[in-house]
């Protein structure tokens, strides 16, 4: 029922069948795996941008093959999920021939959780990396103004007879949508993840004006550097918008101008390296060793993705929790 309600609202906003199908797929991925900040709660935002003209309701995607293992996808200013999934498909086609498929995306828009696209490749047997840069909302290390976006890095790999290995992380301490979710729930933020306009750390979601980079006050240089990696691949290689130059995703008056967002995916075929059988045995052994590693008292060792797959099973049984604003908008 939830997927049908999300698709119905996007259809009412005029999104084409292909683009809204991709958006529903990506948002449900996030909601099912517990990434609520990038899940179905974004439906209202996307509908508003479709109505305002920022998003092309019926984008015609273009693909320009630039080399044996590289290509560019033109998102035609539509929903970013549509362009990103197409980039993964193109990357897999290239990787089957060249071993790797590196695909940049231009003229796109916000695409939700980067892990949705890394997972799409892994589910077809490919090691996959996906990233995007976003509008400035994260301070630099020791900085007192917004510079990078939350700039996620997502990696996924196939695992025989199991869910894929999956790492999907923002390079900020938390994503901005988490702040908005905490505002909706009137809930305090964790320590060391956000700051006031003066750059002072705060737990008040209503006082938070910017995010802190991964590592927080003491080790944020690591997150700030990784945010630059996302910008390198997503904006510099694709010739798209730099973080400080974006029209803000939220809060601005302009909802009619496209944002020319860039994304990047790298798809790798294990058959073209040591071989699929060798890789399958290696990742199976690696994960078995990782999960068998000694733990401190009260601790639990988990591989990337283990938490998400646990949440998936729980939500399959109990349903997906929704915040009040999303319940209102979807009419549930």
From TrEMBL:
The name this protein goes by in its record: Ldh family oxidoreductase
Signal peptide bounds: none
Q: Does the keyword Cell membrane apply?
A: no
Note the coiled coil stretches, chain numbering. none
Q: Which PANTHER family match?
A: MALATE DEHYDROGENASE (PTHR11091:SF0), OXIDOREDUCTASE-RELATED (PTHR11091)
Which organism is this entry from? Answer: Devosia salina
Q: Tell me the protein family, please.
A: Belongs to the LDH2/MDH2 oxidoreductase family.
Gene3D superfamilies membership: 1.10.1530.10, Hypothetical oxidoreductase yiak, domain 2 (3.30.1370.60)
Q: Which UniProt keywords apply?
A: Oxidoreductase
**InterPro entries given for it?**
Mal/L-sulf/L-lact_DH-like_ah (IPR043144), Mal/L-sulf/L-lact_DH-like_NADP (IPR043143), Mal/L-sulfo/L-lacto_DH-like_sf (IPR036111), Malate/L-lactate_DH-like (IPR003767)
Q: Does the keyword Glycoprotein apply?
A: no
Phylogenetic lineage? Bacteria, Pseudomonadati, Pseudomonadota, Alphaproteobacteria, Hyphomicrobiales
Q: Which SUPFAM superfamilies match?
A: L-sulfolactate dehydrogenase-like (SSF89733)
Cited Pfam families: Ldh_2
């Amino acid at each position: 029922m939830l997927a049908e309600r999300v698709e119905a609202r996007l259809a009412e906003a005029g999104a084409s069948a292909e683009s809204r199908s991709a958006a529903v797929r990506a948002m449900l991925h996030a909601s099912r795996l517990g990434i609520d900040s990038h899940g179905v709660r974004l439906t209202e935002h996307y509908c508003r941008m479709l109505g305002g003209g920022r998003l092309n309701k019926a984008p015609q995607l273009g693909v320009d093959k630039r080399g044996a293992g590289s290509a560019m996808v033109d998102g035609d200013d539509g929903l970013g999920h549509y362009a990103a999934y197409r980039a993964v498909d193109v990357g897999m086609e290239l990787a089957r021939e060249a071993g790797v498929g590196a695909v940049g995306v231009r003229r796109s828009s916000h695409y939700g959780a980067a892990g949705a696209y890394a997972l799409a490749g892994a589910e077809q047997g490919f090691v996959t990396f996906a990233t995007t840069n976003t509008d400035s909302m994260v301070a630099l290390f020791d900085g007192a103004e917004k510079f990078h976006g939350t700039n996620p890095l997502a990696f996924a790999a196939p695992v025989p007879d199991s869910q894929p290995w999956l790492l999907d992380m923002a390079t900020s301490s938390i994503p901005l949508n988490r702040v908005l979710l905490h505002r909706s729930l009137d809930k305090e933020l964790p320590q060391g993840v956000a700051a006031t306009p003066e750059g002072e750390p705060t737990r008040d979601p209503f006082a938070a004006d910017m995010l802190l980079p991964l590592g927080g006050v003491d080790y944020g240089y690591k997150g700030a550097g990784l945010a630059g990696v996302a910008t390198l691949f997503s904006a510099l290689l694709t010739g798209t918008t730099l973080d400080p130059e974006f029209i803000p995703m939220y809060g601005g008056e302009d909802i009619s101008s496209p944002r020319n967002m860039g994304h990047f995916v790298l798809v790798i075929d294990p058959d073209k390296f040591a071989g699929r059988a060798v890789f399958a045995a290696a990742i199976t052994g690696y994960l078995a060793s990782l999960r068998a590693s000694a733990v401190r008292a009260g601790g639990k060792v988990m591989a990337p993705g283990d938490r998400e797959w646990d949440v998936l099973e729980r939500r399959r049984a109990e349903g997906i929790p929704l915040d009040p604003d999303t319940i209102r908008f979807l009419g549930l």
